[in-house]
Amino acid sequence: MTYCVGLLLRDGMVLLSDTRTNAGLDNISTYRKMFTFEEPGERVIAIMTAGSLSVTQTTMARLREAMEDPESTPETSILKAPTLLKVAEMVGSTLAQVRAEVDEKLNAMNQGASASMIVAGQRKGGAMRLFLIYPEGNFIEATEDTPFLQIGEHKYGKPILDRVVKPTTSLSDAVKAVLLSMDSTLRSNLSVGMPLDLAVIERDALRVTQKRRIEAGDAQFRAMSEAWSKALRDGFAQIDV
């Protein structure tokens, strides 16, 4: 399993994903779940994935193949699509097609495969947009009323986002919020694990303005986690029933 979260704020977007794909006791695998594509000054697109690795890897491979095709068009390449809505539609269609193909192969074994994605980005002259793509290819979009989207093991990291994230949240506070959301998930679910991939896209920058890989044992992340744990314990002790 995995956990990915994306925030859509007035100042930009903040994205965070883990990299664990197998939480077996003797077989823990690491694969990147966040992919970024840029044409600086023109457009930036980020995609995060959760679910069946065979589905997500094949989907990403087909999207890349379409982008690299010298005969690609706005109908086939997400880097040429006229809008972010069109990008979401293309990603959704590709995901649904791959999922159906994999499901057909697994039916003989009474198994199935599923995956979901978060698509974020901005094109020149357009607004920042953030979408959650469902396994069937349909999607929803983040709004001011719901400024964050999650995929994977999201329940442990959702409470802090519900309490602190608003469209007016600063990018620095948003980074702190997603990291603490991830920390809560790491503590409660072994199927989510380090390292983490963090990306920040500032409004109208049309490029990834901050990208960071957070490895296990990262001193800054550990200090933040310990400080948060202490703050929770102190707050709990001060509440009278």
Task: Give the helix/strand layout.
Elements (H helix, E strand, L loop, with lengths): L2 E7 L2 E6 L2 E5 L2 E4 L3 E6 L3 E9 L1 H16 L15 H23 L8 E9 L5 E5 L5 E3 L6 E5 L5 H7 L6 H18 L7 E7 L7 E5 L4 H20 L3
Antiparallel strand pairs: 1-2, 1-10, 2-11, 3-4, 5-6, 6-7, 7-8, 8-9, 11-12
Helix pairs in contact: 1-2, 3-4
Output the keywords.
five-stranded antiparallel beta sheet; alpha+beta; 241 residues
Account of the 3D structure:
This protein is of the alpha+beta class. It has a single domain (3-238), classed as Glutamine Phosphoribosylpyrophosphate, subunit 1, domain 1 (4-Layer Sandwich). It is 35% helix and 29% strand. The chain contains five helices and twelve strands. It has helices at 53-68, 84-106, 158-164, 171-188, 219-238, and strands at residues 3-9, 12-17, 20-24, 27-30, 34-39, 43-51, 115-123, 129-133, 139-141, 148-152, 196-202, 210-214. The strands form three sheets. The chain has a five-stranded antiparallel β-sheet with strand order 10-1-2-11-12, covered by helices on one side. A five-stranded antiparallel β-sheet has the order 5-6-7-8-9. Strand 1 (3-9) and strand 2 (12-17) form a beta hairpin. The relative contact order is 0.21. The mean pLDDT is 94.
